[in-house]
Amino acid sequence: MTQKFDVVVIGAGPGGYVAAIKAAQLGLKTACIEKYQGSDGKVALGGTCLNVGCIPSKALLDSSWKYHEAKDGFAVHGIEAKGVTIDVPAMVARKNTIIKNLTGGVAGLFKANGVTLLEGHGKLLAGKQVEVTGTDGKSQVVEAAHVIIASGSKPVEIPPAPVDQDVIVDSTGALEFQSVPKKLGVIGAGVIGLELGSVWARLGSEVTVLEAMDKFLAAADEQVAKEAQKTLTKQGLDIRLGARVTGSEVKKKQVIVSFTDANGEQKMTFDKLIVAVGRRPVTTDLLASDSGVDLDERGFIFVNDQCETSVPGVYAIGDVVRGAMLAHKASEEGVMVAERIAGHKAQMNYDLIPSVIYTHPEIAWVGKTEQQLKAEGVAVNVGTFPFAASGRAMAANDTGGFVKVIADANTDRVLGVHVIGPSAAELVQQGAIGMEFGTSAEDLGMMVFSHPTLSEALHEAALAVNGGAIHIANRKKR
Ligand SMILES: NC(=O)c1ccc[n+]([C@@H]2O[C@H](COP(=O)([O-])OP(=O)(O)OC[C@H]3O[C@@H](n4cnc5c(N)ncnc54)[C@H](O)[C@@H]3O)[C@@H](O)[C@H]2O)c1
């Protein structure tokens, strides 16, 4: 007999698993389909984020940062650490343990919330039926009153550098190196290129980043991007802008990469090459020809602001639809859709999705950049505060970067918070909370911030918007 559900979710990444849990919590009979197999051959929940994305990369970023600190950052504190070494297989094994704990945790949450897990590949048929094909090749069809597609994304491949997951790897392969490559090439100075480039640079690789665009971190505020480029270069990342990769040749476990830049044609040889040039939506064998769901011109599933597809009752969320490819955006879309299915009037605020790059210092922002606002003709006041003037940052010997608060010159409403520096992600979240409630720079300035904290840099930057910073000379006078 055909199994019937109120909600069937295709994909158990941070979009799909959150949607499934939320739907079940709202009293809907919910199933979630997932096929991804972990290293033990068993189905693992959590999608790219938990298995080969956000979490494993942060595990390696944290391990490599501790190594770097032990090697080069302790002496200033009077701590002597001699003979510091890195055991790369142990570092990678720790990362794998974290993945196992978290993916197992999601399975536990499914059980606790009564979500039925259907193992296999899900395909949407006509009439909100979903075909589930198991790894044994056997298929079953389930029926749903509502379907949520959360099939995610995968790395873009480029013909000049075909991934073999040995010498030329994508973001997944770059989490599995068993030793530190002497020379590491990275194609793409985006989020993944900078995070993974940082991991291996801290462990001793000579890292060259080849970026096709002439501008570094085009999505970030220009002042932040400039500071980031300066800092990462100082850390040893050789960032080549305007560098177009034209070919690669793997020879004796090395790769010779050809590229053109302002100086003409170039060749460089690397021991490993990471290709990190973006991700694309996964829609392969996902939609039957008569499913009725439309794709947009870039291959994403077409949805409106409420994540409704062209078929009533079928929704799509996360990386497979328009917007930022971020786990937290996917999760919030999942919550919104589950609530709407349950009859609530949930909406999502697409204007306040924070962005974070987990380098050191972290780079994070929410809202608009100064350049975007100027292009829109919005008059703004800007306040910045450098961590070099923060007592807490000095105590931690982590004084690089600054906080920048941008407010509407007429209303004083905060329109953007941009941070490069220690705990930037956490500080930007404070800005996001304020902005969600329509805070003005003055509101933030009037609040009591604990002393001594890094958060005081946000307080001071908000005060500086109107020339009232205490611990730095104000550029703008009251
Ligand atoms: N911390 C995070 O939030 C986080 C971490 C990892 C990934 N992600 C998401 O995953 C997605 C993929 O990340 P990503 O870093 O691969 O993509 P990205 O879009 O952030 O950066 C890709 C970069 O590669 C460059 N590029 C493209 N083709 C090139 C070529 N042929 N030669 C040289 N450079 C080229 C682009 O100009 C761009 O700067 C992004 O949407 C990102 O937001 C987010």
UniProtKB/TrEMBL annotation:
Parts forming coiled coils = none
What cofactor does its activity depend on?
FAD
What are the subcellular locations of this protein?
A: Cytoplasm
Which amino acid positions bind NAD(+), per UniProt? G188, A189, G190, V191, I192, G193, L194, E195, E211, G278
FAD/NAD(P)-binding domain ranges (all copies): 5-334
State where FAD binds: K58, G122, D319, M325, L326, A327, H328
Keyword Oxidoreductase found: yes
Keyword DNA repair in annotation? no
What is written in the cofactor note of this entry?
A: Binds 1 FAD per subunit.
Q: What is its EC number?
A: 1.8.1.4
At the top of the EC hierarchy, this enzyme's class is oxidoreductase
Residues covered by the Pyridine nucleotide-disulphide oxidoreductase dimerisation domain: 353-462
**S-S bonds:** C49-C54
The active site is formed by H451 (proton acceptor)
Gene Ontology annotations for the cellular component aspect, listed alphabetically: cytoplasm
InterPro entries cross-referenced by the UniProt entry? Class-I_Pyr_Nuc-Dis_Oxidored (IPR050151), FAD/NAD-bd_sf (IPR036188), FAD/NAD-binding_dom (IPR023753), FAD/NAD-linked_Rdtase_dimer_sf (IPR016156), Lipoamide_DH (IPR006258), Pyr_nuc-diS_OxRdtase (IPR001100), Pyr_nucl-diS_OxRdtase_dimer (IPR004099), Pyr_OxRdtase_I_AS (IPR012999)
Top-level taxon: Bacteria
Q: Which GO terms describe its biological process?
A: 2-oxoglutarate metabolic process
| Quaternary structure and interacting proteins, as annotated | Homodimer.
| Anything else known | The active site is a redox-active disulfide bond.
Indicate the family of this protein: Belongs to the class-I pyridine nucleotide-disulfide oxidoreductase family.
Q: What is this protein called?
A: Dihydrolipoyl dehydrogenase
Identify the species of origin: Ectopseudomonas alcaliphila
